[in-house]
Give the backbone structure.
Amino acid sequence: MAKSKVAVLPGDGIGAEITPQAIKVLNKVAPKYGIELEYEEGYIGGAAIDAKGVALPDETLQLCKESQAVLLGAIGGPKWDTLPATQRPEVASLLPLRKHLGLYANVRPVVLNNALIGASPLREEVVKGTDMVVIRELTGGVYFGDKYREPHPSGEKAVDILMYTTEEIERIARLAFDIAAKRRKKVTSVDKANVIESSRLWRETVTKLAQEYPEIILEHMYVDNCAMQLIRDPLQFDVILTENMFGDILTDEASMLSGSIGMLASASFGGNVAMYEPAHGSAPDIAGQDKANPLATILSGAMMLKYSFNCSEGAEEIEKAMAKVLEEGYRTGDIMEPGKKLIGTEEMGNLVCEKLGA
């Protein structure tokens, strides 16, 4: 059995607690399908700054390039918030890593497990049946544009450049259409074309590309309306396509539909190596306390099996095992409800493993 290398980047805060749970689950499932994974850890983010002096060491980047997949924990924390913006862990590690690996597309499923309907802040009749995918462009837009400050009569002027090219828009839109073709055949492209020039190019480009996909229903929606519609009527969405900053904001909002951001997995594609990570942050307030929800990371591991190792059956096994644990009433603090059983990070990982053996 040939071994496949996975780069594991625990990062900061709860990252060191949640990534081992995903590995534990992967090790239970992967061998059943003839997949042998070997893991090598690397420093990233604040942990890398402390240990190596930089947020993305060369050896970490090389490790990622040599691996078949990357499993990322979480990045950042108040310890490094006083650093200049360009040196903060989130900016100095995650953005360049995406750029170096060519990860221009983030795929984030938003599915509400029936056992967690009570954990969502929205009413059951609004959220029940939520099942969408958000496709976010990852390597363009204002996050990657030039940034600078200069003197101004009032003090200072800060400038952030928002830029997109036709090519960047086409490649992310094509992925959205391809994914929609395997789902319910609807794409909602989100922009701010009534105000922003890059959004006008976005809308024009997506509209033109849609002609190649006559079976797909395409609708356009302004980002402010989309933010409202996600809460008002989430069942209307199938595939949401959007640019970098809008996608960052909307996916955090959409996480509430699933009960907690601790339930949201994601995958980033584009180059030879895909990266898998939970949607949540490093949660430094609960780090080291065995309180973090590892399910988003475990589900990210399931996505890894499906997309990097072509093992949909293994991914489904993990999803079903997780569903059984939730149906039996086990909860971490972020999804806790009255009458349920509060457990910690480690036990949640163990229970998913137990269900895989059942």
User: Anything to note?
Assistant: The chain has two domains: 1-103+264-358, 121-258.
